[in-house]
Amino acid sequence: MKDCNCGYCVGGEPLAKFGIKICDLSVSQLILFKEQSKRGRVIVAYKDHVSEIVNISDEERNAFFADVNRAAKAIHKVFKPDKLNYGAYGDTGCHLHMHLCPKYAGGDEWGGTFTMNPQKVYLTDEEYAQMIEDIKAAL
User: Fold this and answer.
1) Which percentage of the chain shows pLDDT scores above 90?
2) Rounded CA gap, 85 and 66, in Å?
3) How confident is the model over 24-47, as pLDDT tens digits?
4) Quick check: 89 and 62 in contact, CB under 8 A?
5) How many CB atoms lie within 10 A of CB 61?
6) What percent of the chain has pLDDT over 70?
7) How far apart are CA 138 and CA 79, in angstroms?
8) What is the SS3 string spanning 35-82?
9) Residues β-bridged to residue 85
10) Please, are residues 103 and 84 in contact by the beta-carbon 8 Å criterion?
């Protein structure tokens, strides 16, 4: 099931407002979050437009968390954060997804939860492309 108003479902311009698709995983897609004040921040979005984790089977849930784990390992390998925050909210975009937000000791917001979209750091197309290449290589 897809929702024609959802960036995760339709991609294109709705997705480009906040992210860049890196690749498909087993039951989800991996997206680079454009706002990079937490270098290496990504989103793992479930393949179908469901709002809650209780809306999928146990098997699909396990596969989704395996995708989250795979992405987390790649983020640790490439960016070497001191901590990785995992956020699953969906209050404004009711599509099952999880933010993986790297945190660095002594850095911005260290010791607290991350800001959803601080609107501080955006990169060049070349910098995004290099990050995507590095993450893909680490998957």
Assistant:
1) 81
2) 16
3) 999 999 999 999 999 999 999 999
4) no
5) 16
6) 100
7) 10
8) CCCCCCCEEEEECCCCCCHHHCCHHHHHHHHHHHHHHHHHHHHHHCCC
9) 101
10) yes
Burial 74-110 (b: 16+ CB within 10 A, else e): bbeebbebeebbeeeeeeebebbbbbbbbbbeeeeee
Residue 120 has pLDDT above 80, yes or no: yes
Closest CA to 93 of 33, 5, 20: 5
d(CA 27, CA 80): 25
Residue with tokens 């454009």: 34
The chain-wide mean pLDDT, for the chain, equals 93
Q: Which fold has domain 7-138?
A: HIT family, subunit A (3.30.428)
Give kind and range of the element (H or E) at residue 109: none
* Domains of the chain, residue spans: 7-138
Cα 110 to Cα 127: distance, rounded to the nearest angstrom: 24
CA distances from 69 to 15, 17, 122 (A): 23, 25, 26
